[in-house]
C-alpha cells in the first residue's frame, strides 16, 4: 500500500475553503481549489509515497502486480476509474458524456480529421465512456436529467411569461422525449437576437414568481436567476428550466449515465468515474461548446430525481452505491474510534486495485507487512498484489470512500 497525495485542479469555479479544510490547510487558500484528483489519469495523476512518484508510473512499471491480471485483461494496463473530491463555489458547465460506442466513433472521427488531442476544440480525448457517480459530502446542489414534461409545462405556465408561449406550445403539444428534444434543440440553437429578448423575459418572470411568494418551483427559479446572473444571454439558462433541480444531503448520491444532461451547482462531493475526459458542453462555461455534438449524445427521456439515485446496499459499516458500470464501484465507510455507535474497524480482502479516500478524521491501515495512517484529504493505493488490510478509525469519527473495480459476476 502507498499513501497518495491528490492533485489539485484550480478551476475558477472552485472553493477557497472546502478542499483546504478537508486537508487541514489554512483557509482561504490563495487560489480557488475545485477538484482533488486521486487516480492515474495522465492529465494529473496522484503522487505516491514513499518515493513521491506518479501513481501512473507505479502502475506502468508493473500493471499485473498493481492492477491484477483480471483487471488488465478487461481494461488493459491502466486504472479504469478516477476518484475526485470536488468543491463547487460556482456552477459548473452544462454537460453530458458519450456512451462507449459514441466515444469510440467520435475519437476515431476526430483523429481522422487531424484535430490535436490537446486542442481546445477537441471533444473526444479518449475512446471511453464516462459514467459518473457523485456522493455528497456537504449539502450538494445540481441540475440533472430532463424533468417530466407535465411538470415542466406547469412550471412554464406558472411563470406567466408571454414570450414563452410558443415554446410552451411545443412541449404541451408533444409532452414526451420528442417534445423535450424539439424544445431543447430550439433553445440551445436560438439566434442571438431572440435569445437577447427571451432570457431577460424569463428572468423577469422568475423574479415576479418569487415575489408572489409562490413556492412550488422556487428552488428551480432561484437557480435560473443565479445562472442568468453568472452567464447573461447563455442558452444554458433556458435549459435549466427543463432539468431536475437536485438537492443531496451528505451521503446521498446521483448517477449520471451516458447522455444525461447535468450541471453541478454548489457543494462538496466525492465523485468516481470511468477514467475519461470526454465532455460535451452545452453552455454555462467559457470552455469549448459543441452543440451539434451534444445533441447527438443527449438522452431526452424524462427522469425523476429518484430515478438518478443509485440503490444503496449496506454491508456492515460499508454503504455501497450500486451501479452497473464495469469500471468502478464506490462505497462510503464510517467508523467509530470508540466502537460504541459503529464498527471500529473493517477488513478488505477484495482482489484488484483499490483507492481509499479519507474525508473525515483519520484511518489506520494494517496488514501483515505494514501499518499506514491516512488523514482527511489524503488517500491510499492498495495494489492487487498487496496483502489484505484491516482499516481502523484512529479518530472518534472517521469517514472514507472506497473505489474498486467490481469483479465480473
Ligand atoms: Zn459530468
Describe the structure.
The protein is α+β, with helices and mostly antiparallel strands and 409 residues long. The chain has a domain at 326-404: Jelly Rolls. Helices cover 29% and strands 30% of the residues. It contains 13 helices and 23 strands. It has helices at 18-23, 55-61, 63-67, 69-75, 100-112, 149-159, 165-173, 177-188, 192-211, 218-230, 236-239, 291-297, 305-308; strands spanning 2-5, 7-9, 35-38, 47-48, 53-54, 81-88, 94-96, 132-136, 140-146, 243-248, 253-256, 262-274, 280-283, 311-315, 318-322, 329-336, 345-348, 354-360, 362-366, 371-375, 379-382, 389-393, 397-404. The strands form four sheets. It has a nine-stranded antiparallel sheet. Strands 2, 3, 6, 8, 9, 10, 11 and 12 form an eight-stranded antiparallel sheet that branches. Strands 17-22-19-20 form a four-stranded antiparallel sheet, with no helix packed on it. α7 packs antiparallel against α8 and α9 crosses α10 (218-230). The longest helix has 20 residues, at 192-211. The radius of gyration is 22 Å and the shape is globular. The two termini are 26 Å apart. The mean pLDDT is 94.
